[in-house]
Amino acid sequence: MENQLLPAILPRQLIQELIDEGLPVLNSYISSSVAVKQSHEVNQPLVYCNPKHKLTAEYSALYNELTPVRKNKVENLIINNVAMMQQNKEAVRI
Questions:
Q1: Is 59 helix (H, G, I), strand (E, B) or coil?
Q2: Does residue 56 contact residue 50 with C-beta atoms inside 8 Å?
Q3: Which residue, 33, 73, 91, 94, is the most exposed by fewest CB within 10 angstroms?
Q4: How many CB atoms lie under 10 A from the CB of residue 11?
């Protein structure tokens, strides 16, 4: 997410430097908007307060980008735990 206080070109340069160094950078970007403040004023999440707003779509895209990573980590953890349990059962039989 770009810093809103710096001139617009500096954050883009920083992001490009991260990409050039091969560091992981998310594809989703979150714009600045008064919609967040408005949703806070009515005590509703943005997705309920203004579901068709551009910012809502950006947060949804960010969630969708992050979800597979979390899902894959959980799946890998389960697979590793099952494999360890099977190895322990085989060790007990021997």
A1: helix
A2: yes
A3: 94
A4: 15
67 vs 8: which has the higher pLDDT: 67
- Calculate mean pLDDT across residues 51-69: 87
The two tokens of residue 80 are 């590793």
Joined together, the tokens standing for residue 10 give: 């500096």
- In the numeric block, which tokens belong to residue 26? 């998310």
SS3 61: helix
Amino acid letter, residue 17: E
Residue 33 · residue 9 · CB < 8 Å: no
Asked if 38 and 48 touch (Cβ cutoff 8 Å), the reply is no
**Single-letter amino acid, residue 76:** N
For residue 23 the two structure tokens come to 């560091």
